[in-house]
Design brief:
Keywords: Membrane, Transmembrane, Transmembrane helix. The chain is an alpha/beta fold and 268 residues long. It has 4 helices and 14 strands. The termini are far apart.
Length: 268
């Protein structure tokens, strides 16, 4: 009986399972890569498919603009109203974001509405009680803007000390009037009434402002012509003293605070 000899070659049987494993792993990685690519493409189209371009709304009526933006899936918000001699009342003056901007659906586009030319007369509320002043402004079709309070021993609490814009002002931008109201003496001031410094020595005006913490810009100096001698019964005009204040900004009666920088024009 012949001996049966079986020869074993190393690696012949062990390599097949390993090769099969790598093929399966490679297929799995390929499937994962395809799935990730498909997901990225889907997300890209989903995101960009939900984007729209903001249209040009200037000049449209608010109703027209709402119809256009609703059709694109974006929201319209009227956040300001201004007087305008160029754009008719009820039409859009400006918008944000500007036309052509790509935004997602449900985005909010803010616009300002024209009130047309200013036709209201700004009432004089100085000296009135705060509530009376508010009623006057609303009856005139104006809004009450910011209300600042300033201790003033010479005025009853709640009395309007100053307003901005001033009475009967023309060419105002917004339909709102800011008020400066007298507060009790023990209340901390959040603003001051700008004094009239015309004729004051510039150093005195600067010292008065510095006393309450208000800064002044470098004064502007101007030449002042010599006043003509009076004729007939007219008294001669007094010459302007060098170093005296000719004009100021903000104007007298305006509300100022520590953030305001006052500009003084002074005679050379």
């Amino acid at each position: 009986m012949k001996n049966l000899v079986i020869r074993w070659q190393p690696g012949t049987m062990s390599m097949r399972p390993i090769a099969r494993f790598f093929r399966i792993a490679w297929l799995l990685m390929l499937l994962v890569a395809v799935a990730l690519t498909a997901a990225i493409i889907t997300m890209h189209f989903a995101i960009h498919g939900a984007e729209v371009q903001v249209p040009s709304l200037k000049g449209m009526t608010i109703v027209e603009a709402r119809s256009v933006t609703a059709g694109l899936g974006i929201n319209l918000d009227v956040d300001n109203r201004y007087y305008s001699g160029d754009v008719a009342a009820g039409h859009i003056l400006s918008q944000s974001p500007p036309p052509g901007t790509e935004v997602r659906r449900e985005w909010q586009v803010r616009v300002s509405e024209s009130l047309g030319p200013q036709k209201v007369d700004v009432p004089d509320t100085v000296g009135d009680n705060e509530r009376v002043a508010e009623l006057q402004l609303r009856r005139a079709g104006l809004e009450v803007g910011d209300i600042a309070r300033l201790p003033d021993a010479a005025a009853a609490e709640g009395t309007v000390l100053a307003q901005d814009p001033p009475p009967h002002a023309m060419g105002i931008e917004q339909p709102s009037v800011n008020l400066l109201v007298a507060a009790p003496d023990d209340e901390a001031p959040d603003g001051y009434v700008m004094p009239d410094f015309a004729g004051w020595p510039v150093v005195s005006a600067q010292a008065a402002l510095a006393k309450v913490g208000i800064k002044t810009a470098t004064p502007t100096y101007e030449d002042v012509p010599v006043a003509p001698v009076g004729s007939g019964n007219a008294p001669p005009s007094l010459p302007v003293k060098p170093g005296s204040v000719l004009s100021q900004s903000p104007a007298a009666g305006s509300r100022v605070d520590q953030d305001t920088k006052v500009k003084l024009t002074v005679a050379k």
